[in-house]
């Protein structure tokens, strides 16, 4: 199923603002918001690569890791990291249909990026949940379970961040 995203100007500015803040606070190079079908929704920062191909691969990467998680007994995977010698990336699921991906270099760390991504994901999830609910006039049945997952990830990340500060 292919989703076509057409955000009103206000929502588009809000998404851009969240991505820009994420870049600033994490000292990352680029942040991309992608839907699970591989469509690029929003992007901030420097890329230097084909964004459409990148978006498709980010979505496929999370889907593949989701299937791997199921094979080992996990219901799903919330995030994926790719650590390189010069550049790295981390992706996390936002709601059911979105993926937030951040590309960073040695000026940042995976821990800092994941911590800042968590905050950005919460903001994006709120923006898109509100936008989807108001545009469709309905609520998402997975809201409570997603909120619990976000809270559990927050608690774990807070514990990990305490060890590094």
Task: Describe this entry's structure for a reader.
This protein is α+β, with helices and mostly antiparallel strands and 165 residues long. It has one domain: Dynein light chain 2a, cytoplasmic (Beta-Lactamase, 2-Layer Sandwich). The protein is 53% helix and 19% strand. The chain has four helices and five strands. The protein has a five-stranded antiparallel beta sheet with strand order 2-1-5-4-3, with helices on both faces. Strand 3 (79-82) and strand 4 form a beta hairpin. Helix 1 packs antiparallel against helix 3 (110-136). The protein starts with 8 loop residues before the first helix and ends with a helix. Residues 134-150 have low confidence and may be disordered.
What key phrases describe this protein's structure?
165 residues, Beta-Lactamase, 5-stranded antiparallel beta sheet, globular
Give me the CATH architecture, please.
2-Layer Sandwich
Helical proportion, percent range: 40-55%
The helix/strand series, from N terminus to C terminus, equals HEEHEEEHH
Number of strand segments? 5
In the CATH hierarchy, what is the class? Alpha Beta
Number of helices: 4
Portion in beta strands: 15-25%
**Which spans of ≥5 residues are poorly predicted at pLDDT below 50?**
134-150
Q: Please name the fourth-level CATH homologous superfamily.
A: Dynein light chain 2a, cytoplasmic
CATH topology: Beta-Lactamase
Label the structural class: alpha+beta
Physical arrangement of strands within the biggest beta sheet = 2-1-5-4-3
Task: Give the overall pLDDT as a whole number.
Answer: 81
The general outline is globular
Q: Report the sheet with the most strands, covering strand number, pairing sense and barrel closure.
A: 5 strands, antiparallel
Spatial extent as radius of gyration: 15 Å
End-to-end distance: 44 Å
Domain count: 1
